[in-house]
């Protein structure tokens, strides 16, 4: 099933740049839906297969975190947009949830139950990831947070 993105204008998208946004379903199916949507979007932009595979793993981790830690705090959204990176434009992906006051979950080597996915995101994104307070992009604006990562090897692929 292909999902068509809601195209957004420059004045409504994160970082003031145009991009795409999709609603994510609640529940445990959110990660699988995010992987499929992102795969289709990046393939339509001509992203290399290895970039798509890494992006799918990273978005799966973020969507899972949103479900586990902010499941009741919807809406949940998936964003793909152009951001400002170290070397100019880069393509970024973010998962938004409305649990605005939460921080990124930490990882304890002794408990081993939290944070490993963010380590994967950190490694695969080359350290280009983070959290930002934001408003939802679809429907009425809702205050929340977006956890984002950059897609190395996919700079400037989004339409201007």
UniProtKB/TrEMBL annotation:
Q: Does the keyword tRNA-binding apply?
A: no
Q: Which Gene3D superfamilies match?
A: Histidine kinase-like ATPase, C-terminal domain (3.30.565.10)
Query: Does Ribonucleoprotein appear among the keywords?
Result: no
Molecular function via GO: ATP binding
What keywords are assigned to this protein?
Answer: ATP-binding, Kinase, Nucleotide-binding, Serine/threonine-protein kinase, Transferase
Enumerate the PANTHER family for this protein.
ANTI-SIGMA-F FACTOR RSBW, ANTI-SIGMA-F FACTOR RSBW-RELATED
Name it: ATP-binding protein
Name all Histidine kinase/HSP90-like ATPase domain ranges.
28-124
């Amino acid at each position: 099933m292909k999902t068509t993105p809601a195209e957004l204008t420059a004045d409504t998208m994160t970082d003031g740049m145009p991009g795409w946004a999709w609603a994510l379903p609640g529940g445990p199916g959110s990660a699988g839906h995010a992987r499929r949507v992102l795969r289709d979007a990046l393939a339509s932009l001509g992203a290399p297969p290895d970039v798509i595979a890494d992006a799918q793993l990273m978005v799966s981790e973020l969507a899972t975190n949103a479900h586990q830690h902010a499941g009741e705090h919807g809406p949940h959204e998936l964003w793909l947009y152009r951001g400002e990176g170290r070397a100019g434009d880069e393509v970024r992906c973010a998962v938004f949830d409305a649990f605005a006051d939460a921080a990124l979950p930490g990882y304890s080597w002794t408990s081993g139950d939290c944070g490993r996915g963010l380590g994967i995101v950190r490694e695969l994104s080359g350290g280009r990831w983070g959290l930002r307070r934001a408003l939802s992009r679809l429907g009425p604006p809702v205050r929340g947070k977006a956890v984002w990562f950059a897609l190395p090897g996919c700079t400037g692929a989004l339409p201007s």
